[in-house]
Amino acid sequence: MARYPLQGDSLLVDVEEGIGTVTLNRPAQHNALSRELRDNLRIALRALQDDDEVGVVILTGAGEKSFSVGADLKELQVAPMGPEEMGIASPMMQAFAALTKPTIAAINGYAITGGFELAVNCDILVASTRARFADTHARVGLVSAWGLSQYLRALVGPVRARYLSFTGNYLDADTAKAWGLVLDVVAPDELLPLCRRIAKDMLSCDAATLRDLKRAINAGLHATLDEGLVLEGELARACLSRFDTGSFGARSATVMRRGKDQAA
Predict the structure, then answer these.
(1) Any alpha helices (H) in the chain, and if so which ranges?
(2) 47-96 pLDDT, tens per residue?
(3) What is the widest separation between alpha-carbon atoms in the chain?
(4) pTM here?
């Protein structure tokens, strides 16, 4: 799209009905993260944050085989990543951290190493039956640079995280769901429709409250329980200034009807 100043066609961005769908688009290379693709992804995430038409972001990979297999190893042999691209201050992690809108990773195939890291930087992961996860950093002689060593243990627990990172073994989609890594596993042709339904459910909520909830939950990953509770209290008090008591009755009725419909 013209409003997203991207290089080449390694990344596609589509905005429809308030949902920004970002597609890693190097299927012949298993969506390996070339320098161009990394730059494009950072640009797109920042542009989506600034786009008032977008309320939720879905990240996925092109093709039927891979979400992303991580860094482009052929490119790294001639143009290695610099230290500025690694760690919490890296442009990639900063772009994810700055995104206050909910993010959904639609894992359509292999999510390996750096691709696995992109996935766990998203708020919710949904997998197709073809999805496979692996942290192969130790096998290629690299340390994770975009949060996998920390986020993975928060998602699946330290023992399972150590197992995955210390062995490089692959994790299938059903086991990933059983371990709490992904929300659901569906047939490949149902993956994006399900993610869009989840996104539309999010869009039906109050946008400002969603931003606050995302901030509270994500901040809690980096804080003690007491610190997280303090932030939650601050956000709860701040939201009172924008709370519309006049519309509360209508909103409550909508919530009740929705509950009855989902229970039917």
Answers:
(1) 35-50, 73-78, 91-98, 114-120, 137-140, 148-156, 158-167, 173-178, 188-203, 207-220, 225-239, 248-263
(2) 999 999 999 999 999 998 999 998 877 777 776 666 777 778 888 888 99
(3) 62
(4) 0.88
Q: Are 46 and 96 in contact (CB under 8 A)?
A: no
Shared domain for 73 and 141, answered yes or no, is yes
Would you give the DSSP letter of residue 14? Answer: E
Q: Which two tokens stand for residue 250?
A: 């209508």
Radius of gyration of the chain (CA): 19
Q: Evaluate whether residue 53 is within a structural domain.
A: yes
First to last CA, the chain: 41
Residue at a domain's end among 203, 225, 246: 203
Decide if 3 is inside a domain: no
Verify that 147 and 186 share a domain, yes or no.
Answer: yes
- Co-location of 216 and 198 in the same domain: no
Which token pair is 236? 């709860």
Q: Quote the CA–CA distance of 36 and 77 in Å, as a whole number.
A: 16
Average pLDDT of span 148-171 = 94
